[in-house]
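May I ask for whichever protein you like with its backbone structure tokens?
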Amino acid sequence: MNRKPPQSRTAVLRRSLLLLVVSTLALGGLVATSAPADAATNQFRGMNWAVLGDNFSKGPLVISGLSQTDSNATVRAKAKAVYDDMAAIGVNTVRLPINTHTVGTTWWNNYRGAIDAATERGFKVILAYWEDGAASGGKVTDYNAWNTMWSQVITTYGGNGNVYFEPMNEPHGYSSADWRNAAANWLSAHSSAARNRVLIGGTGFSQDLRDVCNDSRFSGTLFSFHYYTFFYGAMTYDAFRSHMQTRLGNCASRAVVTEYGAPMSNGLNYANASSTDNYVRYLRAVTQVMRDNQMGGTYWPGIGGKRTDGGGFDWYSMFSQSGSGTTIDLAVRNASGRDRVRYGWGL
């Protein structure tokens, strides 16, 4: 039998110290690995694909470019064309609306083609509930319908890591306490939804994260944040930055700016740092805060949205839309606006 020679006391001490250091480093690595992955959200580089006329509807949601007579295959083909053109500017996320008149219907079976076409190409999809006949004035009025809708959605997409769930868009009908209770109840009712794939809207028009950020019931979730000029009026560039940062509270690392936007159809130069135009100051400020905090966002809208500017389209829309059949072509309306949005994403 071979036998190792006895170690000296010094050698034993050295070995013990080495093991202690290695163990400490390993433990540190384990702690770092198991910490919440909320250092940034800039993995979301997205656009809202909306109904032309906006997503507030008491009927099925038929987003711009689709027809309610489209089959699932047709929706997929149209969506693929849309996502091809969005991806060309760096988009990897789409935010899509749902409501109780869409989910669970024949149209839902076909509308899902837009969700599935996105996830199949590796896009992230944020499914957001828009106020419909089950809600009024920014407040859910039929919780059974709301929860039934979400149960169906989560049953279908809960196992798909690319699909995220936003319980309600702009819950402005609630007080802060009431909205936080409603959102916490949603989390309890839909506990199978992974918390790190749930976006809880801020208070008001999703415009203030401070109260939800400080509520321990939302530990592990993401937050949905909206910021527009029309919420607040004219400000300087520095004032916009400061104001937005204040409303993010301590949760910028968990926030996705799911709506922000400015006119893209009237030739504004968003590359002009000395501009006195309020929209230019605003968009430059928002995207700077996003970049500073490594925050992601879904611009409002990519296509669809409110009909404004007398042109039958939303003047905030990033893309003009053309084509026929399953061939949908998107063209950027404003190159400087596109570049500033990309800058906000960290590109």
The domain at 42-345 is CATH 3.20.20.80 (TIM Barrel). The chain has ten helices and ten strands. Strands lie at 45-52, 93-98, 124-129, 163-166, 199-201, 222-226, 255-259, 296-305, 319-324, 327-332. The chain has two domains: 9-38, 42-345.
